[in-house]
Design goal:
Elements (H helix, E strand, L loop, with lengths): L1 E6 L2 H14 L3 E4 L1 H6 L8 E5 L4 H10 L15
Length: about 80
């Protein structure tokens, strides 16, 4: 699994999950329970991961949705 993005914005997470679902891309949302444990103050960002083989497709989906600025930089500093 590869990290696609990291954010404390629940609206962004929900939107990205909907985009990935629509594209048929399996993902995992990590750190959501840790964030709840800290009181839901938004200090701890949640990480959204996708399978390595789906990373480029997922990145393209977010770029097409004008969310490219939210992406973790691509390996090698591109993206």
């Amino acid at each position: 699994m590869e990290e696609l993005l990291k954010t404390n914005d629940p609206v962004l997470i929900s939107f990205v999950e909907a985009l990935l679902d629509e594209a048929g891309i399996y993902y995992m949302l990590l750190d959501q329970h840790t964030s709840i444990m800290e009181g839901s103050l938004g200090f701890l960002p949640r990480r959204l991961l996708v399978a390595s083989e789906d990373l480029e497709k997922a990145r393209r989906v977010l770029i097409d949705a004008e969310l490219g600025h939210e992406l973790k930089p691509a390996a090698g500093g591109q993206g």
